[in-house]
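Worked example

This section walks through a single chain of length 196. The input is the sequence exactly as stored; nothing has been trimmed or padded.
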Amino acid sequence: MDKVNTRDKLKQAALALFVDRGFAATSIGSIESAAGLAPRAGAFYRHFRSKEALLEELARDRITETPEEFDFEGIRAFNDTRAELIALARQFERASERQQPYVRLIEEVRLTASGRVFEDDANQAMLNALMGWVGSKPAATGRSKAQLAALTVSVFGGWLFYLIKRNQGVDLPAIARDTMLEEWAALWGSVLDGET
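Given that input, the structure is written out below as C-alpha cells.
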C-alpha cells in the first residue's frame, strides 16, 4: 500500500472539507484533524504558508485548466484544424467534468482577492495559449492582438457556453453533444482555415 505523505494528506483533507463546508468555514485546525494530525501543532505551516496558498495549489492541481494539460504541441501535430478543434473541445469537456464537484468552492473562492488574482492569471495563461493556436491559422493573418483575442473568444465561446449550460443541468434536447461538437468544429475549422 502506498504511503500518503503529510502534504498530500493535508491537501486531500482540505479539499474534502472545502467542498463540504466551504473555504471560509474550514479552519486550519479542522484540516489538520481531518488529515490525522494534531490540530494547531504546526504541521500545516510546515507545508503551506496559508490556507489561501493551499487553496491555490488545489486549484492548480484539480480545478483550473492549464495550457500544459491541453498539450498544444501534441494537438498541432494533427495538422488538421477541425481535428485540433475537437481535441481542444474534449480537453475543455474533461476540465469541465473535473471541475463539476467543485463549482460551489470555485464560486466562493472568486469572492476572495487572492482567488480573483489566481483566476485572472489562469484565464490569461489559457487565453494566451489559445490565441497562440488560433494565431497559427490562416484566418488570423494580419489581425491585431485585440482582433486575435476577439476571434479566439468567438471560436471557443459557443462550445464553452454549451458545456456551462449542460453542467448547470439545462435541458438542451434539440442539441445532442456529438452534433454540437461536429457542427462547431466544422464551422470554426473552415473559418480558421480561411475557407469561408
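What to look for: The chain has eleven helices and no strands.
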